[in-house]
Design brief:
heterodimer; A: alpha+beta; Cytochrome Bc1 Complex, Chain D, domain 2; 4 domains; disordered N terminus; B: 545 residues; mainly beta; 39 strands
């Protein structure tokens, strides 16, 4: 997906540059079509030679992996994370990695590394492999995607969740009514959890029920509609016929009453414990 | 094009001839020591970080007559004849979003966006020159503005250069690399001039150490470099990390300007979050000096004191808010203080000479991540509110109760003003690897609602809330300005720029120009007080006639 985005951005840039080239002045200044305006060198690097990378992968497995980890993020024996290393990130084609491999490292306060006798070609292959992994690191320092892990979100006690539901939720919601079968509506229990905590899972206030307001005009007439915008100075409503209507506000005039169907959920946010949330989720997933 | 240039130069020479002659002298660094009034010559207007202007023409009575003086839309392409190209890369980032401060001095405005500087005539918003830095790439999150020293300007680029320009022409004097681009540093901070020091910070999301550097503004030569995390055996704070490798990858970036106390020569600034951001398993301990308020002697670059506002942060809540220097009274005794309202929802007041703790108070209404407060005023994180596999309900959200947009303080009301956001997230741990993740990785978040957005006034002596004014549309987005005219200027989230009564937050004037992207500023031009605000790529100047 990332590649698609890059391709899309690149083509947009190319198109933009092509258009701008028509401007004689700009052409004279020499625009660089498709030159990156985002990203860091590790991600801008052109893909390396596949055979070399594959050989580097094998050599890494033999000589480096036990200390630096299968994913290069450091190992149990104390080898540092190579995906955030000043050496690997500044290296271009093995020239900075080579002395570290050949001479080893003995820094005060850090685990030492023995010298390893490898040929220049082998070291270049290892470097190319490291760069190929660095290139897959994601934005904001996120590591490359690892193998999928299964995480169990359902740690709550469904019985306790039911008790909580009956005391705090059943005033507005019903497991045989608006929440019927809610446990089978979501593939992922965390989606269900996010939605019910936010107050978007069903019920009177749930789903897409909009925020509405009633405005009492000077003559006592009440105007009601969906709130498009409400600030200190203006309220804008969408009327039943799809048109919009705005009202100037001066302090408390006119009287405006806002009805937020999720108000109850917003109040609850300050009251839940995480255990309450996990228990209710465990209960709701049983409502198939 | 040549004719246009000649015409431009002639216009420049003929019209404001007197002031142009003065501009060759430029901005004497001593001007920055004066309280904020006629000019806006540095990030916060002056060194105190109060953003309190002593101008009074625009006040509670006259503000209703405030009117538009001019509008200028900035152009981020290389198309204009006034554009000067620079840079060591070949990428052209043409997006314009003014998200920092605008420097006003000598009838001229200096405005920035990432990779761009524009000089505008403050009388009519007319373009004088445009400097366009061609980039190597990097995170183009924004630029917080220029610094000025005599007739030279300085700004930072996303690909980690400090660039110096001639303020009169926009021509480049020099550029120096200030951080390692390969390690994914990116630079947004507005440099700060203190005497003959140019203070420069930078940013990073990938587990690299944070630092503040001082450069010679004349030559661009490095004077000193202060790391915010331990880099060598024996460095102070190393005992708050499991090992040196963790400390050296521990973050603590310096990306928002600090404040300066000329009597002690202390530059006081906040540091960013520790890294990896959300997975603290590999960095057990308080992680000094990340998420801290630090005082550094500006001549030596040595730390005088520190106070950690968020020990062992695991929520990406950088403590990079603008510290505010207050000369106040505590228990009947005059004190030199510094106050800060942090992204983590806590407000602090300290003695700015000694670093002695005075106040710790929660100002985020729904902030829920603190387990206890230690005897020395340092908050203790509740581990149950860290990212967890089944999800933790956390307030505030990643962007915090407040963020980098600056607060304000009025000595007339004694109130510290700050935007307050009370969002909630479900925060999930998605990478339970015992080594921790990297950068901001290893978690997922889902917003589940907000208990409201406010402009909040805090008593700096006690941390008590004087009042909270609800702000529509997601709250104040871009920082505040207080004035001796009894006003507080703020943009809401519904597109209104508002003047509020600084005593109670009551709106006195507003105009709907779109959501402000930088904090309001004020200055004097031709004897008239001006109000300046940016909305994305457009600047609006208001005045009284």
């Amino acid at each position: 997906m990332r590649l698609k985005i890059v391709l899309f951005v690149s083509s947009v840039l190319l198109l933009a540059c092509a258009v701008l080239q028509l401007d004689a002045q700009r052409g004279a200044r020499g625009a660089a079509p498709g030159a990156p305006t985002q990203g860091f060198p590790a991600q801008q690097r052109p893909p390396g030679d596949a055979t070399l990378i594959s050989r580097g992968n094998t050599l890494y497995g033999i000589h480096c992996r036990s200390c630096h980890g299968a994913d290069l993020r450091g190992g149990e024996q104390g080898g540092p994370n190579l995906l955030r290393s000043e050496v690997t990130m500044n290296d271009q084609s093995g020239e900075l990695i080579q002395p570290v491999i050949r001479e080893g490292r003995r820094n005060t306060g850090m685990p030492s590394m023995p010298a390893i006798d490898l040929s220049t070609d082998d070291i270049r292959a290892i470097a190319e492999y490291i760069h190929s992994i660095l290139a897959t690191a994601r934005g904001q320092g996120n590591p490359p995607p690892g193998p999928p892990v299964t995480l169990n979100v359902l740690v709550g006690d469904a019985g306790a969740g039911r008790a909580y539901f009956e005391s705090k939720c059943s005033g507005c919601h019903s497991v045989t009514g608006d929440l019927r079968g809610i446990g089978s509506r979501f593939a992922n229990p965390s989606q269900l959890q996010n939605l019910w905590v936010a107050g978007g899972a069903g019920g009177r206030g749930g789903g897409t029920t909009p925020i509405t307001a009633s405005v009492t005009l000077r003559d006592g007439q009440k105007v009601q509609g969906r709130v498009i915008r409400s600030d200190d100075f203006t309220i804008v409503l969408e009327m039943a016929d799809g048109t919009s209507r705005s009202f100037r506000r001066e302090g408390d005039v006119p009287k405006v009453e806002i009805h937020n169907p999720r108000e109850g959920h917003i109040k609850l946010l300050s009251g839940y414990t995480d255990k309450d949330i996990h228990d209710v989720t465990a209960y709701l997933v049983t409502l198939k | 094009m040549k004719i246009a240039r000649v015409l431009l130069l002639l216009t420049l020479a003929a019209l404001p001839a007197l002031s142009r002659a003065q501009s060759s002298v430029g901005l004497d660094p001593a001007v920055l020591l004066k309280p904020l009034a006629d000019n806006w010559p540095t990030y916060s207007g002056d060194y105190t970080g109060r953003r309190f202007s002593s101008l009074t023409q625009i006040n509670r009575n006259t503000v209703k007559n405030l009117t538009l003086s001019w509008v200028t839309r900035l152009n981020g392409t290389a198309g204009s004849p006034q554009t000067i190209l620079g840079g060591v890369g070949s990428g052209e980032s043409t997006t314009v979003n003014v998200k920092g401060f605008v420097l006003y001095f000598d009838d001229t405005l200096y405005v920035t966006s990432a990779d761009h500087v524009w000089a505008l005539d403050a009388r009519d918003g007319r373009l004088l020159w445009h400097y366009f830095w061609r980039t190597r790439g990097g995170t183009h999150t924004g630029n917080r503005g220029v610094a000025m020293w005599h007739s030279y300007l300085f700004f930072e680029t996303p690909d980690d250069y400090l660039v110096s320009l001639d303020a009169r022409t926009g021509k480049e004097r020099w550029h120096v690399e200030i951080a390692d681009f390969e390690q994914q540093y990116f630079s947004t901070m507005a440099p700060v001039v203190v005497g003959d020091h140019l203070l420069v910070g930078t940013g990073n999301d990938l587990d690299a150490p944070g630092f503040l550097q001082s450069y010679d503004p004349e030559t661009g030569k490095l004077q000193w470099k202060f790391y915010t995390v331990p880099m060598n055996p024996g460095d102070p704070g190393l005992d708050t990390w499991p090992n040196l490798d963790a400390a050296r990858h521990g973050g603590g970036q310096v990306w928002i300007p600090g404040s300066y106390d000329p009597e002690t020569k202390f530059y006081i600034f906040g540091t960013g979050n520790p890294t990896p951001g959300y997975t603290g398993v590999g960095r057990k301990g308080d992680n000094l000096f990340t998420c801290s308020l630090i005082a550094v002697n500006v001549d030596t670059g040595k730390m005088a004191w520190y106070f950690q506002t968020s020990p062992h942060d695991t929520h990406d809540w950088d403590s990079t808010q603008t510290p505010v220097l207050i000369d106040g009274v505590i228990n009947g005794r005059p004190r030199k203080l510094v106050s800060t309202a942090e992204r983590n929802g806590y407000f602090y007041t300290l003695d700015r000479v000694t670093g002695e703790h005075i106040v710790t108070a929660k100002y985020g209404s729904t902030t829920n991540w603190v387990k206890s407060i230690r005897p020395d005023g340092v908050v203790e994180i509740d581990p149950l509110k860290e990212a967890s596999i089944p999800g933790s309900l956390v307030s505030p959200v990643e962007s915090g109760v407040t963020n980098w947009p600056p607060p304000a303080y009025s000595p007339d009301t004694g109130l510290f003003y700050v935007p307050e956001h009370n969002g909630f997230n479900m925060l999930y741990l998605t990478d339970p690897d015992p080594r921790g993740s990297m950068g901001l990785g290893g978690k997922s978040v889902s917003g589940v609602g907000s208990a409201g957005d406010f402009l909040t006034a805090i008593d700096y002596k006690t941390g008590r809330i004087a009042w909270r004014k609800p702000i529509s549309g997601g709250g104040v987005g871009a920082g505040l300005l207080a004035t001796a005219g009894g006003l507080l200027f703020a943009g809401d989230g519904s597109g209104n720029l508002m003047a509020l009564d600084s005593r109670d937050g009551k709106p006195l004037w507003h105009t709907r120009i779109g959501n402000a992207s930088n904090a309001p500023e004020t200055y004097l031009l031709d004897g008239r007080q001006q109000l300046l605000i940016a909305v994305g790529d457009t600047l609006y100047a208001f005045t009284l006639y």
